[in-house]
Design a protein that fits this description.
Number of strands: 0
Strand content: under 5%
Number of helices: 1
Mean pLDDT: 79
Shape: rod-shaped
Largest sheet: none
Structural class: mainly alpha
Order of helices and strands: H
Low-confidence stretches: none
Helix content: over 70%
Distance between the termini: 37 Å
Amino acid sequence: MDDSTGAVEHFNRFVMKHFCLLFSRGWQKKRKPFEMIA
């Protein structure tokens, strides 16, 4: 149980970190009008 939950938590952090990086890069490139919301 401990190993599986630890793996899932690590995987979630890994995915979120890369998603945020990709999102921020795409955000800087596009500069949408609704950037004021963020």
